[in-house]
Amino acid sequence: MLKKTTIDKLPELAACLMEKGTLVAPVKEAGGFNFRAITDAAQVDLIFHNTILSPKTVFFPQTEDFVRYSVYQPILEAKPVEPEIRPTFLFGVRPCDVKSFEIMDIHFTRTGVPDPYWRKRRDATIIFGFAFDTSEEADPAEFYHTLGIGAADPDGSDVFMLRRDDVLFLKAVSPRGENLLGGLAGLTDAAPDERKYFDDYIAQGHDYKTRYTCVDAEAIAKEFEAIFHNTDFWTKVSNACLSCGICTFVCPTCYCFDICDETQFGQGVRRRVWDACMFTDFTLEASGHNPRTQVYQRLRQKICHKYSFHIRKYGPISCVGCGRCTRYCPVNIDIFSIVEQAVQAKWYKRM
Amino acid sequence: MSFEPKILGIACNWCTYTGADLAGTTRLQYPQNIRVVRVMCSSRINPSFIFRAFQLGADGVLIGGCHPGDCHYNTGNLYARRRLAVTKKILEFSGMEPGRFRVEWISASEGNRFAEVVREFTEQIRDLGPQTKFKISQ
Amino acid sequence: MAISFEQIEQHLKTEALKLLESGKVILVLAYGRGYDANHPMPYVAKHPSDVDNIVFNEYCTANLARYLTRYPRRTKIAIAVKAADSRAVVQLIQEDKVCREDLVVLGIPVYGMKNFKTGEVIDSKTTGGLYNPVLYDILLGEEVHGQPVSSPYDVLAAYEAMDKEERWAFWQRELGRCIRCYACRKACPMCYCDPCFIDQNKPKWGEKSPESPGNLMYHLTRFHHLAGRCIDCGECSRACPVDIPLYLFHKKVAKDCEEMFGQAAGMSIGDKPVLVNFRVDDSDKILE
To answer: Does ipTM surpass 0.95 in this model?
Structure first.
């Protein structure tokens, strides 16, 4: 089912969705775009390249309260915090970010104890994927093509959107998306030539060139295993690293968190807060021992986790090539170049 | 209910705290809105104490030290003077009312002055009203 | 007179090569190519053959003094510095974090540097009103003269004119956006505490979650810790992924310190940082 609407009618579509639940869409803020719950239908703006923080914030917010307690009462009086789950429409997610949800699902729902917070939010959300504009030049930081993701991949979305000048096409990809689109007033059916345009666009999305290097999951995992102990290599690539948390915080597939108890005036809350493997105290143990004190060890962990350990344990590469870590890195460390260099590291004689 | 300010006093052991003791032993009346914390020297005061006090609900912070030149440790309050001056500027630029933070030099023999300063400062905070900017909402 | 970045790059390569070949230093902190020409990254040359990878262009804004404290003492280091960065080196020497004897300072007189994220020229905002390094052993090129010099504190005027409610609202809005990635402290050459006060659990100074109270505590205390030490390189603001104008607050504190104590940070090796110093005749007026 391919439907269409015009860009000037976007607020109407937004209002329609806001009636059915929470609409989360990119909103322009001082530093750039971010996914936020929409309060005013006119806020929805599809002229953006990508957001600063990835859409994981919707399912895995930076702070999430688990338990509320009072220090004056026995521990059994502590109350779990039920997350407020409403039907949510996640609007305008780029194809590479849509792919990241699939990878995150592995950790939050498919291995170990399923995370109810993630799962409930995920189940309540309908994802509106949104194709990159292939007429524009690719952002120099991005490399989703390397990971086999097209600029207009509808996989994983419930509804996939594509913009052509003033027209916005919406195609139902999943049955949920179909149900939703069928019930939305204000959308018109697309003409046959428009359907063809849509299909062609998606097919061409795979030819859209971002930075590219041939990466085979099995092979790259092996490469990184081989150079794990090559301290020279890791020192060299991490010389510039400041070990701040930007790359992990903006990453759509980083999921590390810390559990903190925050007590104020006798009332406390146990909450989950994002943590980053790039922080010195990330691996600090209660004994005082810290297995990763050096910057190179931490950067190695981050990259090997994504491109080696993750493949061995779960299968896919834990990176979608959205380029956020590279774009926001204050010293322009580029994970793609490190992967490229790692592939060649065998011939890398002297550091 | 009328507003009763909560004031944190941080007093140096050798002068202001002893001065406060003197005010007590000479039966001088001063408002009980102030809660005095004793530190060994005014230069022991970490600026974070002050930010944290405001966050935890203090309406005003009063700091007392020896008169410059009289420090028990010779130079402590001279360092403190510079540091606390910066604290004041930072509070001011962040948008906090400057009147909520005050530094006074009160010697061990100035019980009168201690009572007077506390009275004055309490009145000043009463006029400013409750401090809501830094305070963490409960 | 326009700055020739190629010329500086050439000078930098020549000097780096000389220093590495003669064994005077074991590493040169300079800039290398990043993922494209507009995104250079800090680069460490350790071998004469590494020198070819050194680049210098208008996007080389990073303050390399940040990396000095990472190497053990008595490591002989050559470092490329621009005007503000040289003040960071001076400040680190004042604080005895690095030894003057271990350093070869390659000064770069330059203006018209651009932020690689936004492309905007940073001169008027965060160069401390300087174009020439205050400390160098070797100057790469000629001193810049005749460039319009604006006071480093000019950009503050609009914020100082705000009343306290507006200022409070402004900082609430700005600091409220902080995501606590700590890039500001990691990019800062003067932030070398281990552990940082905000990472301490006993006592716990502030909340770790990115909400207003914790953000306020972290940033205000950080502004305070950098009082009289901030050298106005602007790295914190450029590193910030959500563009919080931290440099404004740092500048304001620097301005107040300069007015009260009559000394700017990182201008001379012989100075003592203002907050670990005092004068018996400091006026009590500063407390009013």
So the answer is: no
Q: Which residues of A330-339 are buried (b: 16+ CB within 10 A; e: fewer)?
A: bbbbbbbbbb
First to last CA, chain C: 47
Q: Which residues of A touch B135 (CB under 8 A)?
A: none
The single-letter code of the amino acid at C271 is: D
Q: Is B1 on the interface with A (CB under 8 A)?
A: no
A347 close contact with B: CB closer than 8 A: no
CA torsion sign for A337, A340, A343, A346 is negative
Write out the two tokens for C183: 């890039």
What is d(CA A282, CA A316) in angstroms, rounded to the nearest whole number? 25
C-beta of residue B54 within 8 angstroms of C-beta of residue B94: no
Selected for mutation to probe chain B from C160, C163, C164, C207 (highest B CB count within 10 Å) is: C164
Residues 6+ apart with CB under 8 A from C197: B48, C205, C221, C225
Tokens of A338: 């490190």
Helices (H), chain C: 5-22, 83-94, 123-126, 157-160, 164-176, 183-187, 212-225, 235-239, 246-261
CA distances from A145 to A101, A311, A323, C123 (A): 17, 18, 11, 38
Give pLDDT tens digits along chain C (288 positions). Answer: 577 899 999 999 999 999 999 999 999 999 999 888 899 999 999 999 999 999 999 999 999 999 999 999 999 999 999 988 999 999 999 999 999 999 999 999 988 889 998 888 887 666 667 888 999 999 998 888 877 777 788 888 899 999 999 999 999 999 999 999 999 999 999 999 988 999 988 888 888 889 889 999 999 999 999 999 999 889 999 999 999 999 999 999 999 999 999 999 999 999 999 999 999 988 888 888
Centroid of chain to Cα A112: 21
Q: Mutation test of the interface with chain A: which of C35, C51, C117, C215, choosing the one with the most A Cβ atoms within 10 A?
A: C35
Looking at the whole model, is its pTM more than 0.90? Answer: yes
Domain residue limits, chain A? 2-60+83-205, 217-257+274-347
Which token pair is A44?
Answer: 């929805």
C59 close to C38: Cβ distance less than 8 angstroms? yes
Q: CA nearest A129: which of A149, A152, A148?
A: A152
Per CB-CB distance under 8 Å, the chain C contacts of B89 are 252-253, 256
Please state, in angstroms and as integers, the Cα–Cα distance from residue C47 to each residue in C80, C107, C139, following that order.
Answer: 16, 21, 22
A259 touching C, CB under 8 A?
Answer: no
Cα A132 to Cα A136: distance, rounded to the nearest angstrom:
9
DSSP A310-338: HHHHHSS-S-----HHHHH-TT---HHHH
Q: Mind giving me the DSSP string for C186-229?
A: HH-TT---SS-GGG--SS--S-SSSSHHHHHHHHHHHHHHTTTT
In order of their start, the domains of chain B are 7-128 (3.40.50.960)
Neighbours, chain C (3 or more CB pairs < 8 A):
A, B
